[in-house]
Amino acid sequence: MESINYNVQLNLKAHQLLWDLDKKLIGTSEYMGFAYFWDHEVKHTMRDATTKFKKAVHDTALKNGLDFTKGYVKTDQKLQDIISKMLKKYPQRIR
Predict the structure, then answer these.
(1) In the chain, what are the helix, strand and coil shares in percent, each to the nearest 5?
(2) pLDDT in tens, 62-86
(3) Which of 71, 66, 58, 70 is nearest to 3 (CA)?
(4) Angle CA(31)–CA(33)–CA(34) in degrees, nearest 5?
(5) Residue 37, SS3?
(6) Cα 62–64–32 angle (5° rounding)?
(7) Three-class secondary structure of residue 89 per DSSP
(8) Residues in CB range of 43: below 8 A, 6 or more apart
(9) Across-strand partners of 4?
(10) Structure pTM?
(11) Domain layout of the chain by residue ranges
(12) Which conformational region is residue 27 in: left (phi greater than 0), alpha (psi within -120 to 50 degrees), or beta?
């Protein structure tokens, strides 16, 4: 799927609206990288990551069949391996 990358300035209300929309997109290829889709096990790695990094982890997890039915992915070895792989691919993962 082709994507477009925007660098935009958002006020708090616009950010919240975008985050709410993205929360509904968790588990789909339309996820944008704003909303949290992980549990507490990896929150310190994921929460300050760039949207590009979060989307890459999300989309890789989706392709690998991880379960998004609860609105998040429970951390297991598969998810940890995906995050480790993405950390090597995107060393500048912090915003």
Answers:
(1) 50, 5, 45
(2) 999 999 999 999 999 999 999 999 9
(3) 58
(4) 110
(5) coil
(6) 20
(7) helix
(8) 36
(9) none
(10) 0.89
(11) 12-89
(12) left
